[in-house]
């Protein structure tokens, strides 16, 4: 069934990773894929360009249908393969409300993480300001506290972002959360999130899609050590 | 049915506006609401704080359920009131794929519009750079061309963002698109988008939720006139 799917992806990209987790959870292993090196700019290849005018990954194709935005691909997979594998969007309105809420709050966490961890990458040298980076760090610390509080609230130990079940909220957010230990963020900035990370990192869908570069270099950079 | 809904909103905020359009399309007129002045910082009131730790609008409550992220609220309303009013997410997988894709691409258009139109608002004076604003403008022009091309592709004259029907893609994107004529963006930068805007601006759900401040001051600022 997954043989008519094609995913172009870069290792470690949170948007790519979340689509890969969704594919695993929906039991769509065996999908075709092409791993592209971001550093070598392979994601700008002709195949991606032909399918994605934004020339970015993930680029995802199911038969003739193209769904490139990571949230779009995740929702599409859940909808089309609703009864297959893990149910990622619950039917109960109260559960669903929380799943959607956390799912879209993920954009805040992702952007604020990027604004610190990749500040030097996104902002040209002559436009960088210590004051901006300092503010970005403060915003990220505040954001982490918020998420830690969310987990505090829904936990029971061992619960997921939207409660007792693994849902789409976890699919889209875990790849962002995984960057905090990866970049040596001090545990005390978000102890609950770090427990959550430990609980989920060996989940089969997540392990199967673990960034190749993180396997090759398990220590990584310490960009967030002074957060 | 809508009497147990409460929306806190600011006039003209694209995230608020899209929730209001969704409410109208799902025939949920009669929902309770509170209009807050962004300029007077009324969105930071205690009522919002109690429901939304991010202290921002929209803040939306349905019974005891709180769904504040605008995309989350729109998807929640469509799911819970699926058979009521306009069907905003089609069942057909091909149609659905395109609706999701355009829906989430809206974040790009919105962010790039903000990065130009509200550059002075978001970036402190001592951190502003002509080079950054110039780049932001170029990115926005490129983004507009992309959307104009999308409409070119799906049209037939009179079609919507994801084809022949009005969908969630239009709900979430129209409030962003409306900023271009509002801020005097030259029509030739996105002629198809401007046709689309003209076609949709009098749609009942959109007219009923039109920003109050735009009614009071129909001319507006010309922030995008030199785009």
Automatic annotation (TrEMBL), chains A, B:
Biological processes per GO annotation: glutathione metabolic process; L-phenylalanine catabolic process
Alphabetized GO MF terms: glutathione transferase activity; maleylacetoacetate isomerase activity
Domain GST C-terminal: from-to ranges: 92-219
Gene3D superfamilies: 1.20.1050.10, Glutaredoxin (3.40.30.10)
SUPFAM superfamilies xref list: GST C-terminal domain-like (SSF47616), Thioredoxin-like (SSF52833)
GO annotation, cellular component aspect: mitochondrion
InterPro entries per record: Glutathione-S-Trfase_C-like, Glutathione-S-Trfase_C_sf, Glutathione_S-Trfase, Glutathione_S-Trfase_N, GST_C, Thioredoxin-like_sf
Segments forming domain GST N-terminal: 3-85
Domain of life: Eukaryota
Protein name: Glutathione S-transferase rho
Source species of the chain: Culter alburnus (Topmouth culter)
């Amino acid at each position: 069934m997954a043989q008519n799917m094609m995913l172009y992806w870069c290792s470690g990209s949170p948007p790519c990773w979340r689509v890969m987790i969704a594919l695993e959870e929906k039991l769509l292993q065996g999908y075709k894929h092409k791993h592209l090196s971001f550093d070598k700019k392979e994601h700008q290849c002709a195949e991606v360009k032909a399918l994605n005018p934004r020339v970015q990954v993930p680029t995802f194709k199911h038969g003739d249908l193209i769904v490139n935005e990571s949230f779009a691909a995740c929702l599409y997979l859940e909808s089309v393969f609703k009864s297959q594998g893990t149910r990622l969007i619950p039917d109960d309105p109260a559960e669903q409300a929380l799943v959607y809420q956390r799912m879209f709050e993920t954009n805040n966490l992702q952007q604020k993480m990027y604004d610190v961890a990749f500040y030097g990458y996104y902002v040209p040298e002559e436009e960088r300001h210590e004051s901006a980076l300092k503010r970005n760090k403060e915003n990220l610390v505040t954001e982490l506290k918020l998420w830690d509080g969310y987990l505090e609230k829904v936990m029971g130990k061992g619960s997921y972002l939207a409660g007792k079940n693994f849902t789409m909220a976890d699919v889209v957010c875990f790849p962002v959360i995984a960057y905090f230990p990866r970049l040596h963020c001090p545990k005390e900035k978000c102890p609950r999130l770090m427990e959550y990370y430990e609980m989920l990192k060996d989940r089969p869908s997540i392990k199967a899609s673990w960034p190749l570069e993180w396997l090759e270099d398990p220590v990584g950079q310490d960009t967030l050590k002074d957060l």
